[in-house]
Amino acid sequence: MNAIEQAQWSIAQSNELYGFERWGNDYFSVSQNGNVTARTLTAEVELMDIVNGMLERDLQMPVLLRVENILDAQIHRLHTAFHSAIDNLGYKNEYRGVYPIKVNQQAQVVEEVAAFGARYKHGFEVGSKPEIIIALSTLEEPGSMIICNGYKDQEFIELGLSAIKLGFICVFVVETPTEIPIILERSRALGIEPIIGVRIKTTVSVSGHWNSTSGDRSVFGLTATQLVDMVDLLKAEGMLHCLQLLHCHLGSQIPNIQDIRSGIVEVCRFYADLVKEGANLKYIDLGGGLAVDYTGWGSNFGQSRNYSLSEYCEDIVDTLKNTFDDYDIPHPVIVTESGRATIAYSSILIFNVLDTTIFEPARLPEPREDEEPLLTRMRDVYGNLTENRVQECYNDAHFYRNEARELFKRGQLDLRTRSAVENMFLDLLHKIADITETMARVPSDLEGLKLSLADIYYGNFSLFQSLPDTWAIDQLFPIAPIHRLDEEPRRSAVIADITCDCDGKIDSFVGTEDVAQVLPLHELKEGEEYYLGVFLVGAYQETLGDLHNLFGDTNVVSVRINRDGSYDFVKEMHGDAISDVLSYVEYHPKEMQLRHRNTAERAVREGRITARERQQIIKLFNESLNGYTYYEKED
């Protein structure tokens, strides 16, 4: 790009194009150097500086980058927003946050939540015995909450009762009636009074992808009849005073604030009647639901949200206060289980682009008097190409291209002529696509033409390992180059990963106002790496990833940004070696080495290789076993 062209493109245009300020929640921007920055209230760091630091530490792409300050900031913002709403609206109790470990169970994440959240007594939601083990070994602040959801056997309940003895507020949320006798029996056997909660099924139907956790067909929670039976049982056992928490979960990633308000009103009605029944309720747990605006559209689209964090907190506090004041019931402690919104922003998948496929003519043949007649007929299509005849020319181009392929298969057309026809065909399609850009009504055959001509950029990552929700549920994540943003991106592309699977591609992107089918990217430069970042990937992606093609966990780096603009590599973890992923699927690397050694030795005996070559082959095999599963650049 020359200096004049460069001057016509600004960093502000890149900011608008990729939407950093729309979806970035004030954590991401673009520096004057054209590089994406991660920032805190006091400082910012260019991601390219961190990438260079990774490479110096032999942490090759792809890498999952975690910025600890962003995780800390989200916890701080959540508590600050609720405390502000409580003070402003005159609510007569406090807020307690818990982090659902299932959203991201990685030790680096959970330990940071516990360490920073200790000042707020931020606790954990657990849904299994392994998760309560994590909570018990990670939380240190007495009075922190542990919300026990999911199916709970005897051992699970004993662990929770021990947590109460250790000073935690550990609540057994009853999901099914069969849990109640086990809770009562173990509490009596151990002499530890339980803190019991109950999950109810609400009838409010919320919008968004994860809306099946509410309503009559919800997998978890008690019906009205089961709730009455539970109250009667606890009364009969003299344990109704242990029922201290009411729990509901309207849905995850709720985009519409009206759904949240409506759901809370119904939950309050259950709470009020349980209080009348004599329950010693102190806490109301509204579950998750606080959405992440992955698109930055500020709408009720399923992957967006039409409210701010402050509005979310104010609406919850206001609805609870007004409803409980009407019922003349003391205000309970407000508990939420915000996981996605807590963790999503802090993780970025960074990978390099290995290659591209470009659907453009490589070279167009010069006209010749003795050229193949098929080429002449293709040239005639150019002469007819107008807006009024665009469909006709599109049809003719396909007809002649297909005829060339048939003649080639029958040996009546040589390879060079077929190549010339293919190049002319691509050139015609690009010219037709340009015409359709200005047409008021585009023929249906031509509506997807631009997409069919988009480049394919091959990224050094596995969609199935690092972005499984993109494949499984069409999740949108913001994707952008992390450098060269002072240059105009002139290519339109889809992204393919390096798995051998046709589903290993991304062809839906966050656009400025709608889902886009292509992503604007820069041309690759000879001898230079091109890096892309996938943002807001902290929630669920690491745990849900699978070993498609045996691509394992990526390298992981956690950094902390300092007030002076420097940063520290606080944690780093090398990704899975080939031997690691092979052991996951029940291979035994040492046995594989022995069998390979025997194969190489047999080749020596049979005279196919020398003993020295045998050593080189065995060395290569053994070194590869310990190598990264992803594409590695040679030094």
Please, could you describe this protein's structure?
There is one protein chain. It contains 23 helices and 23 strands. It is 41% helix and 17% strand. The radius of gyration is 30 Å and the shape is globular. The N terminus is likely disordered. It is α/β, with parallel strands linked by helices and 635 residues long. α5 runs parallel beside α12, α8 packs across α9 and α11 packs parallel to α12. Among the domains are: 54 residues, no CATH class; 248 residues, TIM Barrel; 74 residues, no CATH class; 37 residues. The strands form 4 sheets. Strands 4, 13, 14, 15, 16, 17, 20, 21, 22 and 23 form a 10-stranded mixed beta sheet that branches. Strands 5-6-7-8-9-10-11-12 form an 8-stranded parallel barrel, surrounded by 6 helices. A 3-stranded antiparallel beta sheet has the order 1-2-3.
